[in-house]
Amino acid sequence: MASVKACAPYFYMIVSQFAYAGSSILGKLALGQGLSALVFVVYRHLIAMLILAPLAYVLERNRRPNFSFGVMLKIFILAMLGITIQQNVYYVGLHLISPTVASALGNVIPAFTFLLAIVLRMEKLNLKTVRGRAKLAGAIFCITGSLIFTFWKGHFVGGLCYFTYDPTSFRKS
């Protein structure tokens, strides 16, 4: 039983990666059908609210802190400037590129966050220690890999898609 509990975080991380990949693919399909990226983000947030609000109300009923106007204002500003802008930019970009590249670029966010923390002096980088060199090498490795992945022009691998969508197939002849 202990081994199942020890493996649970890894299982949930794998499931979340599949969910992100599925979200990218479904988002690309929806955007390809003409759905606006802004409308898609609104629908996504609305569905998330309808699912998570009742769960939060029931499961966190006894642990709710007191919210002041200042705390609520900060949460609102963070929600509008943080995830909302990020998702709008992501889905507009997804409309222009493939879901594979979008997913690969999403994995670079921790490296850019680390570099931004260094620039803003929120993180200290000591290159004299092994830990500091490993942090910098990891960030450079991650960003370089995503850039190579993004700009690589390889051979087209055709014939792998068995299910294609043809919008003209539904029209009456």
Task: List its salient traits.
single chain; 173 residues; mainly alpha; 2 domains; 6 helices; 0% strand
Fold blueprint:
Layout: H1 2-32, H2 37-59, H3 69-96, H4 99-106, H5 109-119, H6 130-151
Helix pairs in contact: 1-4, 2-3, 5-6
Protein name: WAT1-related protein
Membrane topology: Multi-pass membrane protein
Pfam family, one: EamA
Structure description:
With 173 residues, the chain is mostly helical. The chain has two domains: 8-98, no CATH class; 107-152. 71% of the residues lie in helices and 0% in strands. The protein has helices at 2-32, 37-59, 69-96, 99-106, 109-119, 130-151. Helix 2 packs across helix 3 (69-96). The longest helix is centred in the first third of the chain and has 31 residues, at 2-32. It is globular. Residues 169-173 have low confidence and may be disordered. It is found in: Membrane. InterPro entries: EamA_dom, EmrE-like, WAT1-related. Belongs to the drug/metabolite transporter (DMT) superfamily. Plant drug/metabolite exporter (P-DME) (TC 2.A.7.4) family.
Quick rundown:
This protein starts with a helix and ends in a 22-residue tail after the last helix. It has helices at residues 2-32, 37-59, 69-96, 99-106, 109-119, 130-151. The relative contact order is 0.08.
Which stretches are poorly predicted, pLDDT < 50 over at least 5 residues? 169-173
Q: Helical proportion?
A: over 70%
Radius of gyration: 21 Å
**Termini gap:** 61 Å
Beta-strand percent range: under 5%
Summarize model confidence as the mean pLDDT.
Answer: 80
Q: Tally the helices.
A: 6
What is the β-strand count? 0
Shape: globular
SSE string, helices as H and strands as E? HHHHHH
Main sheet characteristics: none
Give me the secondary-structure category: mainly alpha
Number of domains: 2
